[in-house]
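Researcher: Quick one. two chains, 652 residues in total.
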Amino acid sequence: MAVYTDINEIELAAFLDGYDIGCLLSYKGIAEGVENSNYLLHTDKGSFILTLYEKRVNRNDLPFFIGLMQHLAQKGIDCPLPVHRKDGATIGELAGRPAAIVTFLEGMWMRRPTVAHCHAVGDALARMHLAGLDFSMRRENALSVSGWRPLWDNAKDRADEVEPGLGAETEADLAFLEASWPASLPGGVIHADLFPDNVFFLGDRLSGLIDFYFASTDLLAYDLAVCLNAWCFEKDFSFNLTKGTALLRGYTSVRPLGEEEAAALPVLARGAALRFMLTRLYDWLNVPDGSFVVKKDPMEYVRRMRFHRQINSAAEYGLALNKEIK
Amino acid sequence: MAVYTDINEIELAAFLDGYDIGCLLSYKGIAEGVENSNYLLHTDKGSFILTLYEKRVNRNDLPFFIGLMQHLAQKGIDCPLPVHRKDGATIGELAGRPAAIVTFLEGMWMRRPTVAHCHAVGDALARMHLAGLDFSMRRENALSVSGWRPLWDNAKDRADEVEPGLGAETEADLAFLEASWPASLPGGVIHADLFPDNVFFLGDRLSGLIDFYFASTDLLAYDLAVCLNAWCFEKDFSFNLTKGTALLRGYTSVRPLGEEEAAALPVLARGAALRFMLTRLYDWLNVPDGSFVVKKDPMEYVRRMRFHRQINSAAEYGLALNKEIK
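Model:
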């Protein structure tokens, strides 16, 4: 659920006067996206997405996000293309919020991704990483390892409300990860949130990546570790090795991992699980019931953390150590 | 907010196999409609709305609603046209719920309707009433005068929680309305919920009526009274006589009121205000916070009830007694 801000026809017409996207035929608030308000527009020139950036998004970050989408689209990555206003800008203001219009991507996100989808998302992630290498802007990843301790400090006293012992368990994991986090792996632009709802398909063909609002400059292999968490676990929290193998094969077919990246994958995957556990835990404990922010169960990521703790090598995720490392 | 039921790509593909509407390109849950889950579909043949009927809708009523839309569309009324399945049916099942696909109507609902919009909605309501005269199915209006007492019995003990004195005030109004409700005005199919969010416009041109899920067989003039409540009050609860005049002129230009209908308009308008007050009050008191049912303030209709109590004649709503009565 994610229309926080309703907009009326008068302010919308005034906003659209700044664009050359044709005559407005309809606008519908869409129930996707967790952070912002999104409308699907039909005009006589096509379909577009209008996004109103709500308070969880820092408006100083918008030029990075918009610039990244422009850069990636230019490089042939299928992602929404920000539409320029007549005055050349890509960000305007609507209903008191920063707002942008991007092209609409056809495609559907997979509630039940298959092995083929996992392969395709690995491939697309690697292509995105390569395409982003010469993107000139930087944005620190506030939700990388250095950001976890402050999040945890705000939640740890009540963690045991979710499951007895979760406080001590998480404390130990966090200390381990802070001590073991790799310092010098290849970096670049990462998506940082490439979950199934951010990847569109038409059949088995990947038609686009969306929602770059967590994108930042960080370790590329960490992005892959996020995807292992997001795509390769089943609803019963078992790791699907066939999907892991496909995801990694898709990725390394485009961008082989370095030896150090491969060796770090278990730590990175464990860190990625902790990162999503922490933000879910924070919301679980702090967002009031009945808010429009959908609260997701942090235990789904505690289960992943426990899995990753037992992993000794990237081979256990499906990486072919003899083939997929450069 | 109104996507109660998420659907996955597998069950959706199976459902769409029953239709001949082209190749699915995207489906987005849309945040409109209060009772059901609605998806906007894009296919290579156009746009459609997929509705999953949630538990507030009685599935035995669906043939009436669907049949009515077919009937009205056939008669030239701009409303969604139910799409036939390959097997001829118009209702299927998806995610354990009855589901139907209708054509998508371009247009926008007016958050801030103008006088011109009020005239257009009056005109369209009258055309709908005429077009419905030979519709052969009947559906009792469960939310007409005989349905108010049971609703009230479930809410009256707690009405004073909303405003002290509301219990006695409503009791008196209800008793008055039960005693004064007109028995023999012209009847037919009414929309019964023709609020601004159910009427689409392209500029000042009315492009369609939607959401027939309260439609029923009742007094035609009562439908007009609902519209007076829905379209002609300002946000400060003042009645806008210019809008009232335009709405009534639009209606009577197509279907002049009978003398008895005109005389009954103040009672009907008072009843319509009570009807919406009662359902809002019921939800206000009974729907838990944080439910996806959006709770609207019953006091907005208490304010209208108080206004209508002081009205002596339809002229005070803007009816030209010498011209608009047949």
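Residues 259-286 of chain A form the longest helix (28 residues).
Researcher: Thanks, that's what I needed.
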